[in-house]
Amino acid sequence: MTSDNGGMFNRGGQDAFAAGHRQNGDLLGFKFGVWEGGQRVPFIAKWPGKIESDSVSDQLISSVDMLATFAAITGQTVEEDQIGDSINVLSALTGDPDAPVRESLVLIPRQPGQVSIRKGKWMYIPNQGSGGFQGKLGTHGAGGPAAVAFVGNENSDIENGKIKKGAPPAQLYDLEADVSQTKNLYSQYPEVVQEMKALLKTYRQER
């Protein structure tokens, strides 16, 4: 399950990394960016008699879904203008639904031009980079390609701590095959890029 947000690579995060702690594991990026290291975190729920012990789900959910889910659990009614993008994901917690409880999810980083979308296994980012902090190492707002290279993560668009010259203008990742986002598939799947780009546009128009 996916929620938000991952660890920030501020001075405390950098000190923790130097001490041997990888706050984002093998995931790419940091808090405030749209790469998985800034968005994906463990979601742990306990409800004796309702949620099976030691069960695991790969359903896509977000913390915004807790409003609709808690409303369903407690029998509350939430007005449509208040519910927003929240979806009732109770079936994913208490069972193993055959279909996705959430078809897609919009990801919003620090930089508004990098608003991205996830659908199924695909993640589309409309620009280069993560849209998070871009500060130099040693500063509170460290992030971006330089920080990615510093912690040893690999990405096909990054070389020597910078976006490669000639890298694709946007990003597409298959998160089932490559959750660490090592390879940008933008050039290999133009039809998927167009589909995801169009889907993201519909959300922008709605909001």
Question: What does the secondary structure layout of this molecule look like, with pairings?
Answer:
Layout (H helix, E strand, L loop, with lengths): L10 H8 L46 H10 L5 H4 L6 H5 L9 E4 L8 E4 L2 E4 L18 H8 L6 E2 L2 E2 L7 E4 L15 H17 L1
Description:
The protein has helices at residues 11-18, 65-74, 80-83, 90-94, 144-151, 190-206, and strands at 104-107, 116-119, 122-125, 158-159, 162-163, 171-174. Mean pLDDT is 90; it is low at 1-5. By secondary structure, it is α+β, with helices and mostly antiparallel strands. The strands form two sheets. It has a four-stranded antiparallel beta sheet with strand order 1-2-3-6, covered by helices on one side. The chain starts with 10 loop residues before the first helix and ends with a helix. The chain is built from six helices and six strands; from the N terminus they run H-H-H-H-E-E-E-H-E-E-E-H.
Helix fraction by DSSP (H/I, runs of at least 4)? 25-40%
Label the overall shape: globular
Number of helices: 6
Low-confidence stretches: 1-5
What is the number of E strands?
6
Q: What integer is the average pLDDT?
A: 90
Q: Main β-sheet: number of strands, strand sense, barrel status?
A: 4 strands, antiparallel
Count of the separate structural domains: 1
Q: Structural class, from helix and strand content?
A: alpha+beta
Rg for CA atoms: 18 Å
**How much strand content do the residues show?**
5-15%
Give the CA-CA distance, first to last residue: 25 Å
